[in-house]
Amino acid sequence: MKADYYELLGVARNVSPDDLKKAYRKMAMQHHPDRNPGNHEAEHKFKEISEAYQVLCDDQRRAAYDRFGHAAFEQGGGGFGGFEFGAGFADIFDEMFGEILGGGGAKRTAQGASRGADLRYDLEVTLEESFLGVDKNITISNSVSCSDCKGQGAAPGTQPVECGMCRGAGRVRAQQGFFTIERTCPTCQGVGRVIQNPCKKCSGQGRTRQERTLLVAIPAGVEDGTRIRLSGEGEAGMRGGNAGDLYVILEVKQHGIFQRDGANLFCRVPIPMTTAALGGTIEVPTIDGTMTEVKIDAATQSGHRTRIKQKGMSVLRSTSRGDLYVELAVETPVHLTKRQKELLKEFDEEASKNKTHPESEGFINKVKDVLGKK
């Protein structure tokens, strides 16, 4: 049993034309097949709500439906004759939404020209290239305007002629019971003109496949996911229509030394135990390929973080830079000689006399207090 048209669109029976259109727009956007690829349930729902709107948006059809229900459009139902749905779904949706969804929804001009589809290209760059900015060559294979027919689809020296079925109107009418149904002309697909002598090179499409190399200018400071738009470098339009755009999506590779957070960089640097205890200086690499000197205070603990200003990443569309944060990791010595072990034992004996490890000793005392309370 077919669902009630008003219930399908979620509106009252006395809904105004404007509110009816708003309800249809909302549901059509939600269930449109382009937004739900492979979802047959959404496709079926879209057809149902389109059928409902096609009836209710017309005063005569709506009046017939209000009086006779679905029987008004069935053979022998109330004398209204058969009624075809489906042919007008795309026309209704294109009229209301234009190019909102892109792709198949591209709007045609009176001469049949339509804008080409947008393309996407994923491009990987290094962190250094992201810091400095770089020009990259990419190779794409896409449709371009046919050079023989200049994108018109007709053989050189010929022109499209008026469609004999619709007389150039692009639409045809058919009588269905009491109603006159207008739909897109099946011969010219709404163009109003047909190509009698198609271009041999492009078979009347007005475009051909071609592999091209493009230069992409990547500015300094780009981040992972940055999108660069190359206007007019997408698919060529049909029959001389404007080309779509090419969107280059950047992926910044992980670095072996630096971790990035916005414009700031983070680097973990191991230091000898003696340097951490006595103090000193170390050299730290930077993203611009130089080394910078960092002072280590005496008694520095593992995990201590030092900030080096203006040594981070470039900021997009700016002359400033982020900061570099150096996290120090105190390294325990390994492969000790016999003499080194003796020296460390002497150090440990001396250290126990003047409390040189207050943090570890404080932790032990805290543990004793907790266990003692239990």
Structural description of this entry:
- This protein is of the alpha+beta class.
- Helices cover 27% and strands 25% of the residues.
- The protein contains 9 helices and 15 strands.
- It has helices at 5-9, 17-31, 40-56, 59-68, 89-97, 127-132, 273-278, 338-354, 358-373, and strands at residues 119-125, 134-145, 161-162, 171-176, 179-184, 193-194, 207-218, 227-230, 246-252, 258-261, 264-272, 280-285, 291-296, 305-308, 324-331.
- The strands form 6 sheets. A 4-stranded mixed β-sheet has the order 10-11-15-14. Strands 1-9-8 form a 3-stranded mixed β-sheet.
- The longest helix is centred in the N-terminal third of the chain and has 17 residues, at 40-56.
- The radius of gyration is 36 Å and the shape is elongated.
Major beta-sheet overview: 4 strands, mixed
CA-atom Rg in angstroms: 36 Å
Average of the residue pLDDT scores: 84
Distance between the termini: 73 Å
Percent of residues in helical segments? 25-40%
Global shape: elongated
Counted by DSSP, the helix tally is 9
**What's the quaternary structure here?**
single chain
**Poorly predicted runs:** 75-110
Determine the strand fraction and express it as a percent band: 25-35%
Q: Which sequence of strands runs across the widest sheet?
A: 10-11-15-14
* Helix and strand element order: HHHHHEHEEEEEEEEEEHEEEEHH
Number of strands: 15
**Structural class by SSE content:** alpha+beta
Which key phrases capture this entry?
374 residues, alpha+beta, four-stranded mixed beta sheet, three-stranded mixed beta sheet
Give a short synopsis of this structure:
The protein is an alpha+beta fold and 374 residues long.
